[in-house]
Amino acid sequence: QVQLVESGGGLVQAGGSLRLSCTASGRTASTYTMGWFRQAPGKDREFVAAISWSADSTRYSDSVKGRFTISRDNARNTVSLPMNSLKTEDTAVYYCAAKLSLLLRTTYYDFWGQGTQVTVSS
């Protein structure tokens, strides 16, 4: 079992930055593929970014590529998502997720956090 807790959400103006963090608990948390997803009001949850357990591979959605960067610190069981050049369309609840699968491309994840709200104002 892995428990995930997100933090760092908030309100920011368009063009600004925020940094999301996810802390994972569980002895084997560092061996999981980690990802970030988001869900805007009235829309389906969508993939944002993923990182392999060793941090040697990352993947991003086209909508955030070049603006968001996923990283992890396995010694601290944390995953970070610095978000720059934020747009109003980035407004959503952001979820941290973990999975045993090594495949970054698949969007099925085994464990999910509660989410943190990110609001970007114009």
Low-confidence stretches: none
Largest sheet: 7 strands, mixed
Overall radius of gyration: 13 Å
Structural class: mainly beta
What overall geometry do the principal axes of the alpha carbons give? globular
**Average residue pLDDT:** 95
Roughly what fraction of the amino acids lie in strands?
A: over 45%
Count of discrete alpha- or pi-helical segments spanning 4 or more residues: 0
Spell the H/E element sequence. EEEEEEEEEEE
First CA to last CA: what distance?
40 Å
Q: What is the share of helical residues?
A: under 10%
Number of strands: 11
In short:
The chain is mainly β and 122 residues long.
What do these coordinates show?
With 122 residues, this protein is an all-beta fold. 0% of the residues lie in helices and 48% in strands. The strands form 2 sheets. Strands 2, 4, 5, 6, 9, 10 and 11 form a 7-stranded mixed sheet that branches.
List keywords for this structure.
7-stranded mixed β-sheet; 4-stranded antiparallel β-sheet; globular; single chain; mainly beta; 122 residues
What order do the helices and strands come in, and which of them pair?
Blueprint lengths: L2 E5 L2 E4 L4 E8 L7 E7 L6 E6 L6 E3 L10 E3 L4 E6 L8 E8 L11 E2 L3 E6 L1
Parallel strand pairs: 2-11
Antiparallel strand pairs: 1-3, 3-8, 4-5, 4-9, 5-6, 7-8, 9-10, 9-11
